[in-house]
Amino acid sequence: MVAPGRALGEAVEVSGNDTVPLRIALLVYRGNPTCGGQGVYVRHLSRELALGGHSVTVFSGQPYPEIDPEVELVKIPSLDLYRDGDAFRRPRLRELQSGTDALEFATMLSGGFGEPRSFAHRARLELSRRRGDFDVVHDDQCLGSGLLGMLADGWPLVASIHHPVTIDKALDLGAATGPAKRLSLRRWYGFAEMQARVARRLPRILTVSESSRRDIVGDLGVAPERIAVVPAGVDAAVYRPLPGTGKVPGRIMATASADVVLKGILPLLDALAKLRVDNEEAHLVVVGRLRANSPAAEAIERLGLAGAVRFVTGESDEQLAVRYAQSEVAVVPSLYEGFSLPAVEAMASGVPLVTTTGGALPEVVGDDGEAALLVPPGDPDALAAALGELLGAPGRRAAMGRAGRRRALERFTWAAAARRTAEEYRRVIDPSSSC
After folding, report:
1. pLDDT of residue 18
2. What CATH code is carried by the domain that includes residue 288?
3. Cβ(9)–Cβ(51) below 8 Å
């Protein structure tokens, strides 16, 4: 274990007697600190690696992550074609300064998503200028073809795949109405084929659950022996029970994008409407953004939930911890999860959960009734019944909250994630190592 009170730069035992600090380049093509898991993963993993004695430099595309002072941040600007408030923007001609820029813009014009490919090429160029600065390169789910160039350049390379994007693609296509929408989605997800080709050629893949490991083998064709499971963690000093914060009667909390089918917001809204027939206090706070023209906005109006659903964005970890403390129940309605940081944050906060059985969620939250009630994905009736059951049982909520806190502390810490990740770095740096 990493000793309490460890200082930056202090070499600590990582694997066996190997205490030599590593110089790590950590790549993230989108580092949004408040939306999606990549920014959260990179911030906490990089901090714990640095506190474990390693030197860490994060190379990020826009939006940039929030990085702790122990870690260097190198910004790799893209055309930022999907920025908040100006998605699918048309850059000025003077912004197109390279072939990579032109390809990224052309991909957008043809309906595709070019950021993973363009970021990997830009990152390769940046790393070529710092050839002697790093011992290992760790890519976080970009999987652009430029990574194969990095391998050819001689970089020891590890990549994280939290879950295959083929899962998102299949769910979105299944929910699409009409051939035009399906054609558009197939074009958008064109980068998935590139990611699969790249993943099959990388020496080491890290993922966050056994469920994701199976999906990476099945969907991407990666050899199972090249995949290591390293669960993500939670900052249990921030996400913790706050006894001085009062519970809001009927408060349910979720972290779910309103625009991503995979996150299950539509079945959750249906469930809330059913629940409020017998419990008018029941209401929902969603950490996520609601777009005016999204299916979720239409569902809220159709179901008469305008006063019962609130969306919040841009809040700090400390503010989210207070949100959890105010909630009687947290819910993860996803149709699929490769891990689920929100589930672990809720458990660490001592808040009982209702989750689906989609993907890795049972693996994360444990047996039904331990820290969470488990329901089938996409089933509003089951969601409503489980939420109603917990809202009406304060004693059971308290017991499940305590069990969840214990589970989070025992299984999901960033220090453990960093230690295991460093072991995998050493494995690719020296394949003959017994790590």
Report:
1. 64
2. 3.40.50.2000
3. no
* Start-to-end C-alpha separation, the chain: 16
What's the CA gap between 242 and 221, in Å, rounded?
45
Whole-number Cα distances in Å, 113 to 34, 83, 191? 21, 13, 7
Mean pLDDT estimate for the chain = 92
Angle at 44 between CA 42 and CA 48, to 5 degrees: 115
Residue 434 forms part of a structural domain: no
Q: Quick one: angle between helices 179-188 and 165-175, nearest 10?
A: 170
Residue 307, classed as helix, strand or coil, is coil
Q: Which residues pair with 368 in a beta bridge?
A: 372
Contact (Cβ atoms closer than 8 angstroms) between residue 100 and residue 93: no
| Cα separation, 187 vs 107, whole angstroms | 10
Least Cα distance to 284 among 298, 293, 296, 292 occurs for 296
Based on the number of CB atoms within 10 Å of its own CB, is 131 exposed (0-12), middle (13-18) or buried (19 or more)? exposed
Sign of CA dihedral 261, 143, 75, 422: positive
Q: Judge if 257 and 314 occupy the same domain.
A: yes
Residue in the block written with tokens 């569902």: 299
Q: Say whether both 152 and 260 belong to one domain.
A: no
229 and 305 together in one domain: no
The pLDDT value given to residue 241 = 97
Asked if 169 and 187 touch (Cβ cutoff 8 Å), the reply is: no
Check if the beta carbon of residue 25 is closer than 8 Å to that of residue 428.
no
Residue type, 149: G
Distance CA(375)–CA(386), nearest Å, equals 8
Pairing of strands 329-332, 23-28: unpaired
For residue 199, the SS3 value is helix
Q: What local confidence, expressed as pLDDT, does residue 35 receive?
A: 65
Domains: count for the chain: 2
What pairs with residue 136 in β-bridges?
24
Mean pLDDT per 10-residue segment, the chain (435 residues): 35 50 97 78 96 97 93 95 87 92 95 96 97 96 97 97 95 93 95 97 97 97 97 96 96 88 95 97 94 89 96 92 98 96 97 98 97 98 98 97 97 96 96 67
Residues near 49 by Cβ (< 8 Å), separated by ≥ 6?
24, 26, 56, 418, 421, 422
At 37-53, the pLDDT tens digits run 888 899 999 999 999 99
Query: Would you state the structure tokens that stand for residue 183, as one six-digit string?
Result: 């054609």
Residue 153's pLDDT is: 97
